[in-house]
Amino acid sequence: MPAPDRSLGQAMVEFALVVPLFILLLVGLFDVGRAVYAYNTVNNAAREAGRLAIVDQYEDHIRAEGAGAASGLGIDDDDVVVAFEEADGSTCTAIGSASVVRCIAVVTVPYAYQAATPIIGNIIGAISITGQSRFPISVNCATSACPLGS
């Protein structure tokens, strides 16, 4: 009777050790792709809301635009932060007046990214991803027609 082939058992053990690592690496690539998607989405949402803010200074409209542009991430209107600043960083007090054009609209869209893979998610935890845009205001919405109305 021939001796049993021990290489077959060795191959099964190697396969059992390598496959979980390969699957973890593969799913980790999907998580990286989701993180890149979230990063691009929050930056695009901040940019879209900022572009609206330069011609429409109603914060509700700006928040809705930011949340709508990031709808794939489930961001609410209340999550979008809108601020109007002077060039030195202080709060702009000219909203609604003719001198509003010296102000800068700052829109921030935050998102807490959580990896879908349980092992990776437990290791890295939640990652804060924030998109921000800064645009100078070009039109006084209070004296001209606002794009989305009042």
Task: Describe how the helices and strands are arranged.
Elements: H1 6-53, H2 59-69, E1 81-85, E2 104-113, H3 118-124, E3 127-136
Antiparallel strand pairs: 1-2, 2-3
Helix pairs in contact: 1-2
Written description of the protein model:
This protein has 150 residues and is α+β, with helices and mostly antiparallel strands. It has one domain. The protein is 44% helix and 17% strand. The chain is built from three helices and three strands. The protein has a three-stranded antiparallel beta sheet. Helix 1 (6-53) packs antiparallel against helix 2. The chain is rod-shaped, with a radius of gyration of 25 Å. The termini are far apart.
Key phrases:
three-stranded antiparallel sheet; 17% strand; 150 residues; 3 helices; rod-shaped; single chain; alpha+beta
Give a brief description.
By secondary structure, the chain is of the alpha+beta class. 44% of the residues lie in helices and 17% in strands.
What is the strand content?
A: 15-25%
Number of helices: 3
Q: Enumerate the strands of the largest sheet in spatial order, edge to edge or round the barrel.
A: 1-2-3
Low-confidence stretches: none
- The chain-level structural class is alpha+beta
